[in-house]
Amino acid sequence: MAVSIIVAMTRDRVIGNKGTIPWHIREEAEHFRELTTGNTVIMGRNTWESLPEKFRPLPDRLNIIVSTSLGEQKGAIVCKTVSEAVVKAAYAGKGETFCIGGAQLYMAMLPMAEVMHVSWVKGNFAGDAHFPEIDFSQWEQKQTREYEKFTYVKYLRKRPSG
Ligand SMILES: NC(=O)c1ccc[n+]([C@@H]2O[C@H](COP(=O)([O-])OP(=O)(O)OC[C@H]3O[C@@H](n4cnc5c(N)ncnc54)[C@H](OP(=O)(O)O)[C@@H]3O)[C@@H](O)[C@H]2O)c1
Predict the structure, then answer these.
(1) Under 8 Å between Cβ of 89 and 40
(2) Which helix (H) or strand (E) is 97 found in, with range?
(3) Are 100 and 6 in contact (CB under 8 A)?
(4) In this model, does residue 162 exceed pLDDT 70?
(5) CA 115-76-154 angle, 5° bins
(6) Which of 146, 9, 32 is nearest to 98 (CA)?
(7) Given ligand 1 and candidates 17, 48, 66, which is best to mutate, with the most ligand atoms within 8 Å of its CB?
(8) Segments in the chain forming alpha helices (H)
(9) Domain definitions of the chain by residue range
(10) 20 CB within 6 A, ligand 1
(11) What is the dihedral of CA 104, 123, 134, 116, to 10 degrees?
(12) Are strands 76-79 and 62-66 parallel, antiparallel or unpaired?
């Protein structure tokens, strides 16, 4: 039940401000769409509610929301726990399973993630939502691509040797 994280953040690990994403980077949104389309996305309730109505559910992806309070949602599966969400994603078998945020979901799912797709956003943005601290000694940088407003880096979790 492998899980990948996908996130856009500043070097200070800012991911959001006042319930939204503090930047509008068309190329980054396109990059997110390309990587996640055809796959499964797991998100927290706040992230689900922050999506503009026309992108809810995110099209051509299996949408899973983790929430203890939300009722049924059209076009998405609601799970009460992260483990239930991961099991549902595995059984649905729709490609790669991505955790797409927000801060609480990243915190809960980072320990189980094997892959991180990080868009390092250039510049400084004020924010009240952060990605958890990353222990880079546990991650190997596999791929990097430069864009005008962000740098994409794919990290794989290091396997214990021996
Ligand atoms: N830059 C990026 O890549 C990126 C991506 C996504 C989001 N964001 C930003 O992140 C911010 C939102 O983050 P957030 O931390 O406030 O919200 P969030 O993680 O999206 O959602 C939090 C909610 O999810 C549910 N939840 C979280 N962990 C749970 C668990 N272990 N078990 C059961 N339910 C759980 C709870 O819902 P209930 O209260 O209903 O139980 C909780 O209130 C926004 O600013 C958003 O724009 C940024």
Answers:
(1) yes
(2) strand 97-99
(3) yes
(4) no
(5) 15
(6) 32
(7) 66
(8) 26-36, 45-50, 82-92, 103-109
(9) 15-96+103-150
(10) yes
(11) 80
(12) parallel
Query: Does the beta carbon of 127 sit less than 6 angstroms from any atom of ligand 1?
Result: no
Residue with the two structure tokens 């991961």: 86
| Full DSSP string of 15-53 | EEBTTB-S---HHHHHHHHHHHTTSEEEEEHHHHHHS-G
Does CATH place domain 15-96+103-150 in 3.50.50.60? no
- Which amino acid is residue 104, in one-letter code? Q
Ligand 1 centroid – CA 102 distance (Å): 4
Q: At 79, which amino acid appears? A: C
Mean pLDDT of all residues in the chain?
A: 96
Rounded CA Rg of the chain:
15
As beta bridge partners, residue 3 has 97, 113
**C-alpha angle with apex 31: 144 to 19, nearest 5 degrees?**
110
Instruction: Give tens-digit pLDDT for 65-90.
Output: 999 999 999 999 999 999 999 999 99
Distance CA 76, CA 27 (A): 26
Q: Give the contacts of 162 (CB within 8 A, at least 6 positions apart).
A: none
Taking 90 as the threshold, does the pLDDT of residue 94 lie above it?
A: no
